[in-house]
Amino acid sequence: MKSEAKVDETAKYIYDENDTYTHTSDCKEIIPFEKIVLTYNSQSVQDTFIAITLTSISNTTEVKLVHEFIPNLEMIENHIKG
């Protein structure tokens, strides 16, 4: 397994698992300590978005991840499995 990251204003990454899957992402929005929105693309899905929100609750932080625009139920189920 290999991965490559370029951390700059675009926050791009490529993840290549056993030379089979390549995932790319571009950072679209960052609100420090609150929210990150990324594009997400792979061989199976294109032009989806991942939103990560952080909410302070008492002495903890709730992390919510929402993956939008996955085109069909089969792909949603595959993404849930990992």
Task: Summarize, please.
By secondary structure, the protein is mostly beta strands. It has one domain (2-81). The protein is 11% helix and 56% strand.
- Helix % is 10-25%
Query: Strand order within the widest sheet?
Result: 4-5-6-7
Tell me the Rg in angstroms.
Answer: 14 Å
Strand tally, please? 7
* Protein structure class: mainly beta
Task: Tell me, briefly, the overall form.
Answer: globular
Taking the sheet with the most strands, its summary is: 4 strands, antiparallel
Number of domain units? 1
Ends: how far apart? Answer: 16 Å
On the 0 to 100 scale, the average pLDDT is: 79
Low-pLDDT runs: none
Q: Which percent band covers the strand fraction?
A: over 45%
| Element order: H for helix, E for strand | EEEEEEEH
The tally of helices reads: 1
